[in-house]
Protein 1
Amino acid sequence: MSEKIATREAYGKALVELGAANEKVVVLDADLAGATMTKHFKAAYPDRFFDCGIAEANMMNIGAGLSTMGLVPFCSTFALFGAGRAYEQIRNSIAYPKFNVKICCSHAGVSVGEDGGSHQAIEDIGLMRLIPGMTVIVPADAKEARKATLALAEFKGPAYMRLARLATPVFEEDYPFEIGKANVLRQGKDAAVFACGLMVNETLEAAKLLAAEGIEISVINVHTIKPIDAACVTEFATKCGNVITVEEHSVIGGLGDAVADVLMGKVSCKFRKIGVNDQFGQSGKAADVLREYGLTADQIAAKIKETL
Amino acid sequence: MNTIELTKICRQVRRDIIEMTANAGSGHPGGSLSAVELLTSVFFNHMRVDPRNPDDPNRDRFVLSKGHAAPCYYGVLAEMGFISRDEFTNFRQLHSILQGHPDCKKVPGVDASTGSLGQGCSIAVGMALGARIQGKDTKVYALLGDGECQEGQIWEAFMAAAHHKLDNLTVIIDNNGLQIDGTNDEVMSLGDLPAKLRAFGFEVFEIDGHDLDAIEEALSTPVSGKPKCILAHTVKGKGVSFMENQVGWHGKAPNAEQREQALKELED
């Protein structure tokens, strides 16, 4: 692992690439351009950038209106204020009419750190995957965030992308990205571990710790929570027998539930969800908060071991 | 289209509203009847649309933010030729294109799915902005309820419309003064609405929302550098004596007897 870049930073830079390639791309923010990194697009294409002020509900519906005019709007704010506050706008004015609006929200998960529980969305994946027809993407690193952003511009229909504030390691290997197709990053017979977002890297580190003890796990990056790659989930669950999910999200409603929905009644396996256990986040340095909630590599390794 | 022709269409749309809600046994006749002249005038005399090509990218746009006035909308769309009158009996029925609130994926001529109050004006702002940045001369109309103006998002949309000086946007408020739980003033007073609209940056036209000539004048008067708002004073249930100004007729369908009486009052 070399440099550290936040997925939000990669998203902001990718928007600039899109701005040059596709004149239909427009970007909206709600007074957080400096944090969601849409500031890069704002600087490059000011005529196609709309700051809606601190009014997330209005921003989502302006995005809806822009999409009906043939444009491709990307709406950004923090995950809690996008998926949370503007939930019903997304549900009724974007997803219900199947409008081509991309909702890309940063500052998801407890790794937000110092801002505390009021700003740490631990339920956004759940809220968004509940909506019929919504595509939900959680990139694992900066390279994947860039690819996902470019892919979203080509994809027709409503989609939600979850981005992180924290700068995290960029994978050396360059994995292909296809919406709805999970990436198998490591193969091992003892457990199938499905992870998303920042937890993919932590799980890969956990896999190294476990390997040192002779435990070999498969690590699958489920960057698309919906539609989930059911074939891949079923294959690895069947092959390994033990299934573990790891996410920086509530254990209710997120990746864990999405994987469980695929396997229930079909595959007989041991199953454990690792994530935030039905509680709010809190202030602290990102690394300290992640440790407090049991989401670091060594803690994940211990939980996996305990499950086998 | 002249006033005599429009009057005739308005009467037919009122009959359609009664037929649709009575047949469905549910729906919103009161706020549909108050909006008839406003919607009819916008569609017949101002909207650049072609029922044979409902998805024309250069068409004007309309958002029925008060989506519960769907029966009025469907009546006007049928008169315009976007949908068949045969659909009316399917209003609110399983598998119908005529949902209880407008669904733009199902009904030709409908530009946005609405019904959840407070959201339509923001969509219209997006349409107006989208037209402007693409150099299109598209005009955008949004019809709002007055009770709906209790939603904070309406005022977020108003702020944005003025901020962007959207003179291609016309907001029409169907000010019938009533909502589900009582009068606007009893439930949550809107205060001095015309003053608030002016303070939010609109050029305001305050008119009688059933006076076709006044509507025509307000719609035709050009405004530049700011959005236009037509504050239309209307009567909820307009045209049906026992429904007029009655809170109870917000979301209740006429029974067989009431239907006959209403249709009799709406004869040519």
Protein 2
Amino acid sequence: MSETAIKPRIEKVPLREQFFQKLPVLLVPMLALLGLMAIGNPASWLTLTVAGLAMGMMIFIMASGLTVVFGLMDVINFGHGAFVAVGAFVGFTVLAWLAGWTASPSVMLNLAAVLIAILAAMVVTGLLGYAFERVIVMPVYGEHLKQILVTMGGLIVAQQMIYVVWGPDELHLSRPEAFQGSIVLGEAAIEKYRLVAVAIGLALFLAMRHILKNTKVGLLVRAGVENGEMVEALGYRIRRLFLIVFMTGSALAGLGGVMWGLYQETITAHMGSEIMVLVFIVVIIGGLGSVEGCFIGALLVGLLANYTAFLAPKVALISTIALMVAILMWRPQGIYPVVKAK
Amino acid sequence: MADNLLTVSGVHTLIGPYHILQGVDLVVPEGGVTVLLGRNGAGKTTTLRTIMGLWNASQGEIRFDDHLITGLDTPDISRRGIAYVPEDMGVFTDLTVAENMTLAAANAPIDQKRLGWIKALFPPIGTFWNASAGTLSGGQKQMLSVARAIIEPRRLILIDEPTKGLAPAIIKAMTDALRELKETDTTILLVEQNFAMASTIGDTVAVMDDGRIIHSGVMRELTEDDAMQEKLMGLSLEAHQ
């Protein structure tokens, strides 16, 4: 093919279009700025903003797995909440075993106890995810209605199993010594645990972004989200990729469960299904299958929930739904729509 | 004529309630271009997808290099040396051109010498190497789709209507590229409705209608026989008007 036959040219994306593409990234600082103007007091605003970011990060941890599972596998997993609850209970058990470490004033011992609890929760929920995918999800690939029914069924079974193992009562999950209390910055009091949640959430987001952008597995996931059939035609076993992604998503939900449990300091068998409302809102706002959109959506939900709870507690009940409606009216496919092959 | 690389015998394919392929018999000799012609809905795309394992044959058998591949999973068929360029090109628009090519090199890192040859064959691949594939024009996406299929040496390439919807200049460029590819002893099974283009590069030809092969033979015989063209092409058109 000669150069003269076809002259390739690069067309620059107009500035206006570039701005609209980047606009979602500005939504979080814009909302924070609006919050500052509405709240007035910078100390209260700082406390609420950190609380909102921490809440958003924890929701992101739980939602990230769900959105990738939906994007890649086209599976609507209503049972995702089961992994959140199981993760929290496993974390509770491990932290109870390591009570000596969590009661110690040593930051290192506290951190080690939490990390072991997180690791155990992720291993158990990852394995549970394996069984869930093989037994419940695999027979209903491509059938959305059946997926909703069977994954709901899986959630109920998991909740009943929690009753069997840990009993029907809610349990108190106390934070390790080093994560209790607040740091005072001027007039603002910031809970230490919220800072930990922000750090873990941010680290997870950056790690996921790195894997998706810079590794072959990440490329396969992104390509599979768009056109799984073509990935198979290139010689890759997408079913194996499905399983890995499902297990990873389940493990992330388990991680989210431990963190959410430590945040609320109370865990119940139903905590997963309760938080799933927010998780689904975040996944829808972000664009089904989009990790970046999920991250921005989670931060928006976290910040808005905290600001409105402070400014107008009654409005807080509908604020996240209103946010979802507003975003979908602006971008009906979510913040970052994922292009799927027809 | 060389040995047959691909043999499709009595293949039936059902998609839902539709009986699309109704006993397809097709041979693809090694080392040339076999063109599969036929009207819209004749079953050409279904034939390629069935060979690739994307749809299962309910009856019949498909042999590649004398090994039965009917019932194998698509990745297994691909790893035996068959590449597929679908009608919709199957380009991953969320990925860059480089990422598309990296994924296509499924068995080893990209061979730089081969990549250089591909960039000479399709200049836009080099020009837009780091650009998002979603920003490419239709012709450039088609080039990327073919480039992806040949980034690793393949024994057989299934190409579904590579000139569909392209401007005449791009069609000529694509034809030149396929001709050069043919010179490398790669076997091509080409689905095409553009008979003028197909006749210039095809060695053998098969014509489909209603889910069956109604004619197969040497391309030159068909191009030189206006009456046969009229019979085969005319039959297809008139029968479905």
